[in-house]
Amino acid sequence: MAVNQQDSADRTQTARPPTDHTVDVVMPAHNEGAAIGATIREFYEVADRSAGVPVRFVIAEDGSTDDTCDVVRAVAEEMPVRLLSFPERKGYSRAVVDGLRATTANVVCFVDSDGQCDPADLPRLLQRLEEYDLVVGFRHPRRDPAFRLLISRAFGSVYRRLFPVRLRDPSCPYVVIRRDALDRVLTGSPGVLKQGFWWEFNARAQARGLRTAQVPVRHRERIAGQTQVYRLNKIPRIAYEHVLGLLALRRELRQLQNV
User: Fold this and answer.
1) How many Cβ atoms sit within 10 Å of the Cβ of residue 130?
2) What is the reported pTM?
3) N or C: which end of the chain has fewer CB within 10 A?
């Protein structure tokens, strides 16, 4: 269900008029109370204050049971933050889609809320966006546990057999995209892959013919806490769901191309 149809949504936003150069930054959050405050503040200080890129934040909170919402509301007293909060857990992909659809700026950025993406890389991504519709980061080197890297490589081999996407890091959660291009990518039924949204996003972008650039980005250790999605005991179920999702996604994209 679309964000603007959710009566239970918590919309917290500071009053700051947008400019033509404002970038909406989408961050999903599920039980990220230990990290998200520092992530937002660092991103604002580095991108907005230091690099001169005016940013607004859309936090797509997804049924957290910790103090994530309280932390975000506190940060919203200091800087432009909009909180989309829902009591039920929808999953990473649905939260991301709702966050992206809630944006209004001509340029949209996405980063995860765990602090692993470096805001100092944003100006370089935006510079490439002058020539492209979409700019995707690739983590170099990638700072994730060995089991995450192994799973990603195995899934990537299946993914590339099904989709003609030739990105070095199609699951990287650091992208910038133009508004018109984002609207094209979000047509259809995005969110088929419940957790692996960026694999899906890039397949949809390729199917829509988006001009895409790749830029190396720094990848850091998490600020705090642990991943809320790819825990070891959840991997078998996620892998099974992802393979089914890839097949469903391929069917959908083929149908869209035939319309």
Assistant:
1) 7
2) 0.86
3) C
